[in-house]
Write a structure and sequence with these properties.
Strand order of the largest sheet of chain C: 1-2
CATH class of chain C: Mainly Alpha
Order of helices and strands of chain A: HHHHHHEHHHEHHH
Largest interface: A-C, 45 and 41 residues
Number of helices of chain C: 11
Number of domains of chain C: 1
Shape of chain A: globular
Mean pLDDT of chain C: 86
Largest sheet of chain C: 2 strands, antiparallel
Oligomer: heterotrimer
Helix content of chain C: over 70%
Largest sheet of chain A: 2 strands, antiparallel
Strand content of chain A: under 5%
Low-confidence stretches of chain A: none
Radius of gyration of chain C: 19 Å
Shape of chain C: globular
Number of domains of chain A: 1
Chains: A mainly alpha (about 300), B alpha/beta (about 240), C mainly alpha (about 290)
Structural class of chain A: mainly alpha
Helix content of chain A: over 70%
Chain lengths: ~300, ~240, ~290
Amino acid sequence: MTLTGARGNLMLALGALAVASMPLWATPYHMQLASTALIAAMFALSLQVLVGGVGLVSLAHAGFYGLGAYSVYLLGLPKLGLSVAVTLPAAILLSGGAALAIGALALRTKGFFFLMATLAFGQMLFFLFHDTPLGGGADGVFIQRPPIGITLSRGNRPTVLLLVNLGTLTAMYAALWWLMRTLFGRALLGIKANEHRMAAMGHDVQGLKLAAFTVAGALAGVAGHMAALTDAFVSPELLGWHRSAEALLMVLLGGIGALHGPILGAFALTLVQEAGQMLTERQRLVEGGVILAAVLLLRHGLAGGRGR
Amino acid sequence: MMRAEGLTRRFGGLLAVRDVSLDLRVGVLHAVIGPNGAGKSTLVNLLSGELRPTEGSIHLNGADVTDWPNWRRARAGIGRTFQRTNVMPAMTVLENTRLGAQAQGASGLGLLSAGRTTTEAAARAALDRVGLSRAAATVAGNLSHGEQRQLEIAMALAGQPTVLLLDEPLAGMGAEESAPIAALLRVLAGDHAVLLIEHDMDVVFAVADVLTVMVDGRVLEAGTPAEIRASAAVRDAYLGHEA
Amino acid sequence: MTALAGLLAQILNGIQYGLLLFLISSGLTLIFGVMGVINLAHGSLFMIGAYLAYVIASVTGSLWLALPAAILGGVLFGALLERGLFRRFRAREHLDQVLLTFALILLFEEARAALLDNQFHSVPVPAILDFSVPVIGGFAYSAYRLAVLVICLGVAGLMVLFVERTKIGSAIRAAAEKPEMVDLLGIDAGRIHTLVFAAGTALAMLAGALAAPLQSVYPGMGDGFLILSFIVVVIGGLGSIAGAFWSALLIGLIDTLGKAYVPQAAGIAVCALMAVVLLWRPTGLFSRA
């Protein structure tokens, strides 16, 4: 993975400006759609830490996303009425903690075993909310949004949520841009390139992978938290492995060769899904076709760049 | 410095290394020679921690490191190179070497610093030493074979080890390329404990202070180059084939 | 007595469920082991087998035709998939394989929805087996379930015979353990791959057809089986048929008994078992390493 350079960041900034100006020209529906894409981008970006950063393909990632979402439900129950100042750190801690525990086990395996282990552990989180009353049931539950400092009304809600999501994604991207430049980030890229040599040179490969897994899980929790805040609804489906696969698709679509790739991938997939919904009832046909095309034809993703 | 006692490694029914003991000291270049399949690379892998011995022990500066994984031994001061070039081909020479340097420095939250100055200085010093400074910005995959062998050494040196395990550093090099590396080996022995695996007997006898001859996983003979040259057993078992 | 009879029934159910799991996961483990391909769509093949049984049973009125149809159809379909698609993905990265097979899941589900519908269907148990066999005392057990048990054991026995006793079988074993060995045996690796993939597909579809009368046939029914078969493979060890057999029985029993007695914890219990195995023996409970 290459780190996005000045020109790429300028393009991203222009894109962010375009999204930020949406309240001036777009309908509430389209602002909601943009919020969906921004949240998808956060989720995919958190996964890029693993896929592009250290070369791990995990199918447990949606589990951490869903945990972040459910922490809003669990802590935001009307009785407690806690604000985002509590729910967001809680989501980070819960998702990061779960990623630390699951990663410590799953990283004992490699290759296919790692994929299968993450799939199974992710589904364990899914079952936790699907089969037990902990999360309000298998069909999902509407939640009360925790206070965010601005009183939401029907009129200002799409605008406020859009800007909050844009700000969160920007902060997450900036944090990762910095993180990948530290010694830690460079060590991750080294592991992706040649794990064996990195260990031989004295890098604690297992520890670094676990740290990356934890960071990625915690950031997925942030994305899930924002999803719950935006949609005011959580369901076990958020934790299902199909959603992990979808995030992997966004990463692949955007390109694992560049840090910002998943942002492009998330917007592209959201648009394709939206267009598919307008044109046909056969959603899965569209998504399956997009994946086939991406896997068969698009080897470097929308962002290009080396790293494959 | 580094001491191996009674090292044995079994792969299924095969004894790749049996009862090998040796001492490595700073200032001494210890070469291990032997025909293919004698267990030389296995020995390096046992010393570096890539493999665990079936029997025997390894001590480094008095500490028992037998059960340490390779990365912990590397941190404790063991640097190694590989028989087959083993680098990060898509990264530049400097990036490759810097990763060798940074493994020794920060850990934990210290990894969250950019750490450019310290790691880069160590990396550049290592590149200087092997004579690869001019190629610092070249992508490793684009280096010539000889330069990749130099990079192998630089990556090990960047971690500022006290023990250097060099597994055929001259493999595949022409005479012209290998001469400066052979000279470098002599220099490195000045401030490192060096273990050298090498097939080129001219180089080995020119640079080694101590020689261990391995055949079929066992130590056949050990001694100074002069003693080894004079050994009838070695001549029969090994050197005779070369002449 | 009724509690004991209930327990006995659940244990038999668990064994029968485990054997179905074995049919699915033995194909999965061989495909991993021999081809190095991860197939997330393996659960969808199970689903296709179940729907095939539903269609055949409702058209002809007999489930019996569905079993050979699932096997033959599976062999053809599997060979086609391997030659047309999976062959090209052997050398690709995990990410590509995961996404390709995820796309197949979506496309298979969509094809099912287009050809049939999105409803739940039940498939009647064949009339000839629609009775209960008295086991001990007052306890009787469904004859069809017993038949499934026997068929699965028969298939497992045939597989072991084939893999242990034939030349192709030993090539498959060699390929699962050491891919570079296959060439030494003088056997075309490409044909082994097609064979393994076709057999794996046929086994998954057969399992689907057998399971159709036991549970409803419904969209996404392969998903649960996919996860459980993955866990079976992790616990059993990669490429090991014997490992798949014992761990499938173990998982089948735990899942069935769990669902019967502690329904809220069954899904988690199975994953927790895998966690313990990973901690204790990361290469699987039954692997030699």
